[in-house]
Amino acid sequence: MPGSEPQAPLGYTSNKEMSQDFLIPMINRILEKGGINLTANDDGICNGLAAVYIKYALQGKSSEFAAMLNAINQRGQQAIMEGIDESPPPSTSSDNEISDSDINRFIQEVVYCFLPDEFDKQLSQVDAVHLVTVPVEKPVESPDGNVTRITEPQKLQSVYKLGLVAEKGAWKQIFNKMRAPDTAWHVGSLDHAVAVHVNKEGNFEVYDPNYRKIAVFKDGHPKPESTAAGQLENFLFRRFAMETNKMALSIDVVAHPQATIDFKFPDKESFIIDNLISRYPDAANNALMNSNGAPYNQLAMAARVNDTEMIRLWLEKGSSSSHVALLVAVQDNRLDSLDVLLQNQYRHCLNDPENSPLSAYYDAVKVALKKGRAESLGKLLNDQDIASSISELLQNEKQGMQFQLELLSHAAKSRNPNCIRMFTNFLKDNVPDLDLAQLINSGNVLEIAREAGNPQCLQILKNLVAEKPGMAQDSANDLNSAEDEMPAYPSNEEEVKHFIWRLPSFRAVISMIVDKIASFFRSSKAETDSSTQKYKTQIDEVKSVTRISEDPAATSQSIKSRLSIEKASNEDAPEAPNSLNQFTS
Fold it and tell me: Which InterPro entries would you find in this protein's record (predicted)?
């Protein structure tokens, strides 16, 4: 159309509209109007966008992905400008080819992938790439013998996975050995996610949701001595590890369900671990802090992608601390990794400086409850050593009730009814003369459950309080009306899809934003001199987000210190080092 600008070619020219700037407030409005008590943020949206980009890239549709983000930004800006009687930005030809229905489906898929664990407690953020589907044709023979072809959605095939902390120089060698054409990598750092597509020529096409173009890295470009793997390493270090020479990554390699990937990926022991140890003798205990100060070592990074091979190898090669890895395995519901870390021959790596695994056990149960990981919680409470240790804590003469209430409060936050049932049953079985109704009321547990937003969890706790009728009336009456308004969260993948499909449409949310901004400008029409600044302020309000932490929870000091165990000198037990203090509680 006249005045339209051609779409920028991917990889070489910055396409300034291909960003998540407008998508975040859009998704937040959709979640808000859908009654979902979640907030989109840069980290979560990056995870979802990276997964959805991989879906497009493996179908040869990277340009369509960029056009979709352009259309969302263009139409959002256009609607806002028209709502305040300003000239809208020019539309591109590709923008006009994308319908509102296309945008709705795209946003629904991003929402589905951006925080899967908030909808389905068996999933984790790093599972996002395994949630997307691509259409696949298959022949179907009818009763009369005729063969027709139908299209059905299929998930991507898993090809290779790796969780690792490695120095600069080592990563480019690993990337080069992983360079399988027609694959895509979901690459997660401690606080961010990007997508890497290895195209048919073996070049790297990298999509970083915080970057305004898809970068393409080739051997011999831009300089004859340039390597694609070296450029990819530099690119990722600039985004993930600017202040250190180490980078912690979890990489999940996937391919189209119909693709045949005949490729030899790097051997994890001989090529990766042995090479690292030969160059860096202490590589087995390499660790990096994320933005919240949580330490992630080799075992923790391997646990993020359920890479049990790497966990076993590092434990055999000298990794000495598995406390954080245990928390990561529980937080992300990595049951295979959890099994390995709890094997008797490796359990000593859970010990704290006081040579006790008690802090690791307690922290793991706390994380399982807080994150609603019923499967992980079941494994923990069915472990004889862990169960007896937690039981002793809950029965401690001086601080037992404090531990009971702390764990019960985290169960109330879980939004998983199974977690509440499992833990309250554990309390009943392990604490003699337990007054569960009194415990629930003493810590405002019902209010915590109500704020978490799952009506089933709240009802279970109210029923437990109701076992003492007098207390039930005082605690539950004020929550009844609020409970009626709470959304019924889905419990499996199919329910999640239907739940998201019922959310408000792209066009409906655009209208809400336009109405809000237009109303503001109409009321401020006379204040010409200050209108520009107020417009910017209003836009900032629309785009504002609340950061969501994804770190496992841990206690701020060792359990033995909290129990104030007296030594022979009658001095209090010393606090454990602060290596875990920065985990969120």
Answer: Ankyrin_rpt-contain_sf
Using a 10 angstrom Cβ sphere, with 0-12 exposed, 13-18 middle and 19 or more buried, the burial of residue 494 is exposed
What CA–CA distances, in Å, run from 242 to 168, 290, 374, 396? 11, 12, 37, 46
- C-alpha 302/C-alpha 520 separation (Å) is 50
Q: What's the pLDDT at 341?
A: 98
Residue type, 229: A
- C-alpha 431/C-alpha 434 separation (Å) is 6
d(CA 558, CA 404): 17
Q: Are 18 and 145 in contact (CB under 8 A)?
A: no
* Percentage of the chain modeled with pLDDT above 70: 69
Backbone angles phi, psi at 476, to 5 degrees: -100, -20
Report the C-alpha gap between 126 and 103 in whole angstroms.
Answer: 24
pLDDT band at 79 (very low <50, low <70, confident <90, very high): low
Q: Which residues contact 103 (CB under 8 A, 6 or more apart)?
A: 68, 71, 72, 75, 506
| DSSP-based three-state secondary structure for 558 | coil
Instruction: Tell me the Ramachandran region of residue 328: left when phi exceeds 0, alpha when psi lies from -120 to 50, beta otherwise.
Output: alpha
How many Å apart are CA 312 and CA 103, to the nearest integer? Answer: 44
Identify whether the C-beta of residue 464 lies closer than 8 Å to the C-beta of residue 437.
yes
Listed in sequence order, the residues at least 6 apart from 191 whose beta carbon sits closer than 8 Å to its beta carbon are: 43, 290, 291
Distance CA 186, CA 77 (A): 30
Of 32, 106, 20, nearest to 516 by C-alpha is 32
Alpha carbons 341 and 302: distance in angstroms, whole number: 11
The DSSP letter of residue 477 is: G
The pLDDT-based confidence of 243 (bands split at 50, 70, 90) is confident
CA dihedral 375, 380, 382, 386 (to 10 degrees): -170
Token look-up 């606090």 returns 575
Sheet holding 214-217, edge to edge: 157-167, 246-255, 183-188, 193-198, 204-207, 214-217
CB proximity list for 363: less than 8 A, separation 6 or greater: 323, 326, 327, 552, 553, 554, 555, 580, 583
Q: Which tokens belong to 388? A: 């007896």
The amino acid present at 523, given as its one-letter code, is S
DSSP letter for each residue of 49-70 = HHHHHHHHHTTT-HHHHHHHHH
Tokens of 163: 């969780």
pLDDT-based confidence at residue 210 (cuts at 50, 70, 90): confident
pLDDT at 125: 79
Is residue 44 within 8 Å of residue 192, measured between CB atoms?
A: no
d(CA 99, CA 270): 51
Count Cα atoms within 13 angstroms, Cβ side, for 51. Answer: 30
Surface-to-core class of residue 2, CB atoms within 10 Å of its CB (0-12 exposed, 13-18 middle, 19+ buried): exposed
In DSSP terms, which residues pair with 197 in a beta bridge? 184, 205
